[in-house]
Design brief:
The protein is 5% helix and 40% strand. With 373 residues, the protein is mainly β. Strand 7 and strand 8 form a beta hairpin.
């Protein structure tokens, strides 16, 4: 049987070859039978009008890789690795990243030498992989000088000196203080010479070195009046006019000379019952203030608790120096106005402040008593 089949195919092949002898193939367009991929080749075929087919291989495609991604960073002692993936088939390709001698893994900085005022310090860190050390300087701190202290005062004769010392290392720095101007005392006139004497000359001497200066004068030269001194001639000491008195501010200081005149006013305990005759008033409120004309004002609020036939009231008020114990000034409040029991009376007693010789601020006190005629 097998022999018969082999003879059949041999006869068929001979017939076909005999029929194609002298035939020119007329091929169709190539038709893709199998698309190529990144992993394997594809195939295409074409057919002749006589029915014969021709097959041809399509080469495998190249991989369509994306960009590299670092999967392991190269260090100073170990290479790294990177990979990329084909966008079509997902195949991965890896590549070695050479050792990076500059990519150390340093630990924290540690101070090796502390800086001082003039010298740098030093700090270092060590690579945990290869042991290499890295150093960097710590800037010098610089001196921390204290405020200048005068070692020797300057005068009109000699220069002075001041010193500043570093509070960290103790080094000191000195500077020269320029000579000061002469410190002249008061002007003086010769015996039997007045400011109005023709050709009068005034002299004054430096209190330090005795240097004298002279000035021709043709009359008095008065200073301005102050809170404690009237206008005074600088040559002969003649005084004229009046002192200005203190002009008080709310903080107890004088507006003109800035002297603290008094620290506070001590008020009496309330309520206070006082009056004139059989008219009695109970004072329930007292307050003090200073005005810019030099007055201490005492404001009161009281109620008439009994009234006589004259329908009048009055009381006696004193402002005194609690520090020295002496009375400075007193004032009285009196009214003939009609009043009746239950009336609320509001008023003010003002004290003009006299000139003071005290150099220390004082404490003032107020007392209120019955009105005395």
């Amino acid at each position: 049987m097998k022999i018969k089949l082999c003879l059949f195919f041999l006869i068929l092949s001979a017939v076909l070859l005999a029929s194609c002898e002298g035939h020119v193939h007329s091929w169709s367009e190539w038709t893709v039978v199998k698309q190529p991929s990144c992993a394997e080749a594809g195939s295409q075929e074409r057919v002749c009008s006589c029915g014969q087919k021709e097959t041809e291989e399509i080469p495998a495609l190249q991989h369509n890789y994306g960009p590299y991604t670092v999967t392991e960073t190269a260090t100073c002692s170990k290479p790294g690795e990177r990979e990329r993936v084909c966008r079509d088939c997902g195949q991965k390709a890896t590549a070695i990243i050479p050792v990076n001698r500059d990519n150390h893994s340093y630990g924290d900085w540690a101070t090796v030498r502390e800086p001082n005022c003039t010298e740098e310090g030093l700090q270092e860190r060590r690579c945990e992989l290869c042991g290499k050390t890295d150093e960097t300087p710590i800037p010098a701190e610089g001196h921390s000088f204290t405020e200048w202290t005068v070692v020797r005062e300057a005068t009109c004769i000699a220069e002075g000196e001041k010193e500043s010392r570093c509070d960290k290392c103790g080094v000191s720095e000195t500077r020269t203080i320029a000579k000061s101007a002469h410190q002249y005392g008061d002007w003086h006139l010769a015996d039997n010479v007045l400011c109005t004497t023709p050709g009068a000359v005034a002299t004054q001497a430096c209190l330090v070195c005795g240097t004298r200066q002279m000035r021709a004068i043709d009359g008095h030269s008065f200073t301005e009046a102050t809170c404690t001194k009237p206008e005074t001639c600088i040559y002969c000491g003649l005084q004229t006019g009046y002192v200005l008195y203190h002009r008080l501010c709310p903080d107890g200081k004088c507006e003109r000379c800035n002297q603290l005149v008094f620290t506070k006013v001590v008020m009496p305990d309330l309520p206070i019952v006082c009056g004139h005759g059989t008219t009695r008033m109970r004072i329930d409120s007292l307050a003090y203030s200073y005005n810019r004309l030099g007055f201490v004002d005492i404001d009161f609020v009281g109620e008439i608790i009994s009234a006589d036939k004259n329908l009048s009231f009055g009381f006696h008020c004193e402002l005194f120096n609690r520090t020295a114990g002496g009375t400075f000034i007193e004032a009285e409040q009196y009214s003939q106005a009609e009043c009746k029991v239950g009336d609320i009376i509001r008023g003010r007693v003002s004290f003009y402040w006299p000139p003071l010789d005290e150099t220390e601020p004082i404490e003032l006190g107020i007392t209120i008593s019955d009105f005395q005629q």
